[in-house]
Design goal:
17% of the residues lie in helices and 44% in strands. The protein is α+β, with helices and mostly antiparallel strands. Strands 1, 2, 3, 4, 5, 6, 7, 8 and 9 form a nine-stranded antiparallel sheet that branches. Strand 4 and strand 5 form a beta hairpin. It is globular, with a radius of gyration of 17 Å.
Length: 142
């Protein structure tokens, strides 16, 4: 088996640290019994859950409220062939507590899309896994 020292698995704390450095990730969920992926901006809350801000009427809210989903974010540099990818898996729930909603209006993510009313969706980080590619400028011949 080929060993690649440039590739390594990331621990939970390192995964969460990297997630906090990027503004956009992808929600992976099921829509009409098929896999769906939606890019969306996000932030991490103090409890390490992923927070999304979206429209209360969005298809996304209807599809993921109360369901286990995955959330992925990454950062890569093609020139150095390096980067990382982190996946958080957990239950998504719409924030319904008025005090929590008010707090998130101040501290939570802002949407890149104009929203008249906003809801927040919390994805618990029950599992956080990641990989880092250290990069190399060498190419492997076939």
């Amino acid at each position: 088996m080929f060993q690649n020292d440039a590739f390594r698995a990331l621990g939970r704390q390192e995964c969460l640290r990297l997630l906090a450095e990027v503004p956009v990730g992808r929600v992976v969920y099921t829509r009409h019994a098929l896999p769906a992926v939606l890019p969306i901006n996000f932030s991490l809350d103090t409890d390490a859950s992923v927070l999304l801000r979206t429209s209360p009427d969005s298809d996304l809210v209807r599809a993921i409220d109360g369901v286990v989903v995955a959330f992925e974010a990454d950062e890569f540099d093609a020139a150095t062939r390096s980067g990382w990818s982190v996946v958080v898996t957990g239950r998504a729930t719409v924030v319904t507590d008025p005090a929590e909603h008010e707090r998130l209006l101040q501290t939570g993510p802002t949407s890149w899309m104009p929203l008249r009313d906003a809801v927040f969706v919390r994805i618990e980080s029950e599992m956080a896994t990641g990989r880092e590619l250290g990069g190399t400028l060498d190419t492997v011949a076939p």
